[in-house]
Fold each of these.
Amino acid sequence: MRRVLVLNQDYSPISVCSAERAFLLIYLEKAELVHEDESMQMRTVNKSYPTPSVIRLQDYIYIPFKSVMLTRQNVFKRDSHECLYCGSKKDLTLDHVLPKSRGGKSTWDNLATACKKCNSLKGDKTPEEAEMSLSQTPFKPSYVMFVRNFSGFTSKDWLKYLSLN
């Protein structure tokens, strides 16, 4: 599925949608085409249209706070779908760096992707106690970082709107 970056009226990134949805927003005059994908055209029976890559909404949408939701799949995306202990990409699960039984919470900073083997070896210990090191420290990604790095497709047209925030 072709992905399109959606910008607010002030050119700040707010989401990613399908090319079909973006085309509909343009057609209904709710958005304008900012960049098109020159390698692809959208066709009807008798007409061709540019495929959107970046669109900008006509009206400003007030968004009080944009955050990445903590879900199992989003943690896997942040960790590139690999175990942070051994690098395996098979039989993945979530590990609490500080175990729940010892007061560890289900937060971005305490959850890591782990394969079942490493998670079992670590057990009810911290990584230091189990003598297992993490390849990266778990962190909460910013919304812009998540869109830029983990949303699937990122076009070169997106880069100037997805600066480090």
Note: The first strand starts at residue 3 and ends at 7.
Amino acid sequence: MLIQSQLEQFLQSLQPHYLEIINESAGHGGYFEGKESHFKVTLVSDVFAGLRLVQRHQKVYAAVADVLNPKKIHALAIHAYTPEEWTGERPDSPLCAHAAKNS
């Protein structure tokens, strides 16, 4: 099973109103077709109500612990919102310093 599919499956435990998982691996150094190493997760859930940002991230990390290790995922950007906070937008990821440069 693809890592992105596993992330989606595991994150269902947080009962998302909205879930978006973007494979950003192509924007990083060492990319090859099919690589799954860098992901951005945007998750909107009632389970985040009353939690600080670090606690929200801890919930996400706990949910995806089975695939969150350096041999599988190098980076996981998390944007965690309650339904009341969600505006339909999330920040763009920064450019990777090790991404292939276009000449």
Note: Residues 17 and 49 are 13 Å apart (CA to CA).
Amino acid sequence: MKTIINLNERLTEHFVLSEFLASRKAEEHKIPNIPLERHIIRLRNLAVRCLEPTRQRFKLPIIVTSGYRCERLNQLVGGVPDSQHVEGMAADIQIPHSHWPFSVTTEEQMARILWFWMKDNLPDFDQLILEHRGASYWVHVSCHIDLRKNRRQAFILKAK
């Protein structure tokens, strides 16, 4: 039985489901990155509790660079087996360079601003991680539906 989902389903005012499913790797390898209803419910929770308040505060577009990942896609991108992305509870986000305030000159600066604001102002997150690979920086954010499970772990991954 095929799952029918509406890719244009609005999760919040500024976020639609398709943003959390898009993956160049999945397209390249012809992997159907299709979530189940439980994953969509968790993605909506993440968008409502973490992404929309951040979008409202900064009044800048937020790009989801990695959202839901089916198990096969998660393996392909080198994600950990118990990744919250597989459960529909996590997203990696950035603010596009074309929208940075004039005072921000690097991707690292913008990601740090985003990370610090989220850490200090979002009451409901499980993990908040400032990550990078080379000169590319992003914020990983996750959130449980059962708010009692949110650990409020916030840390910055250091370069290896």
Note: The mean pLDDT is 94.
